[in-house]
Amino acid sequence: MIQITDTVAIEDREVEERFVRASGPGGQNVNKVATAVELRFNLKGSSLPREVKDRLATLAGSRMTQEGVLLIDSREYRTQAQNREAARERLVALIQKALVRPRSRRPTKPKKAAKEKRLTTKKLRGSIKELRGRARGSDD
User: Fold this and answer.
1) pTM of this structure
2) Which fold has domain 2-99?
3) What residue segments make up the domains of the chain, in order of their start?
4) Which residue, 18, 121, 28, is CA-closest to 74?
């Protein structure tokens, strides 16, 4: 059981872990031992609420497969246990982020003072740029 929050948890059967050989630090050990973890979380078959699944799919981006499986790869540590824990922590962090419902945007209009300020700065900028041109009226 992976505990996400006080009320949300994922069953271990919903998460599939595969251990593969990793590149990187470890010397000859990396050629012999499968320390990298490929964590697969079937989003479509999970027990998460529908809206959380939708937000999680959006957050996952390219880590999501066509079949609706979330892939998290961890190969930063030398031991299998550390990589496994890191992958699970990343899954938990991603789900916690998806649990937060985004606030709806309330459209606003610029105030009159802001419009006037924008126009005055545009006028000022235009007059500065106008001074950069050739001098008018003098024949050199």
Assistant:
1) 0.63
2) Double Stranded RNA Binding Domain (3.30.160)
3) 2-99
4) 18
